[in-house]
Amino acid sequence: MNLDTIIVALIWGALSGYLILRTLGSLLASGFCLHGLLMSRWKRLVNKAAPGQIKYSIILRLLLWVALYGLLFGFLLEIGDSLVRREFRFNYRGTGGFLWGSMAGIVAAFYLRASWRRLRVTWKMTHEFGYAEKRQRTFLLKR
């Protein structure tokens, strides 16, 4: 194993660990948005005047952003993988694969807390009444 392979494995491992975590987080957040949309729709069907209903526009806008982020990070992951395989002739076997996996795991573990926090905010925005509006007002006041 030469130095170039080690460097490629470490750098690509760090980048792909982050991209994989963000892609999976976006996929899970999309599921949260769809669940919130379904629950909101069910409440409206049962009682149109029921209090505590989250607006469709909030959930749909969040779903759009989460889907765009998921597509972006998935696309970057695919482009990076094809670049590393084609240009550097990197394969995921042996010591290079172990270095790649180790670095990807370390980076994913490092960013896991931020990803979890992002998922909690997504859940609250799609399932707690008034949370998205309060968050938007706070954001506008901080500007």
Give a quick set of tags describing it.
143 residues, mainly alpha, elongated
Describe the structure.
With about 140 residues, the chain is mainly alpha-helical. Helices cover about 85% and strands about 0% of the residues. It is built from 4 helices and no strands. The protein is elongated, with a radius of gyration of 20 Å. The model has no long low-confidence stretch (mean pLDDT about 90).
In short:
The chain has 143 residues and is mostly helical. The protein has 4 helices and no strands. The model has no long low-confidence stretch (mean pLDDT 89).
SSE arrangement:
Elements lengths: L2 H44 L9 H32 L6 H34 L3 H12 L1
The overall average pLDDT, rounded, is 89
What's the order of the H and E elements? HHHH
Number of strands: 0
Q: Into which percent range does the helicity of residues fall? A: over 70%
The main β sheet shows up as:
none
Shape: elongated
Give the C-alpha Rg. Answer: 20 Å
Task: Bin the strand percentage.
Answer: under 5%
Taking pLDDT < 50 over at least 5 consecutive residues as the criterion, the unreliable ranges are: none
Separation, N- and C-terminal Cα atoms = 52 Å
Class inferred from helices and paired strands: mainly alpha
The helix tally amounts to 4
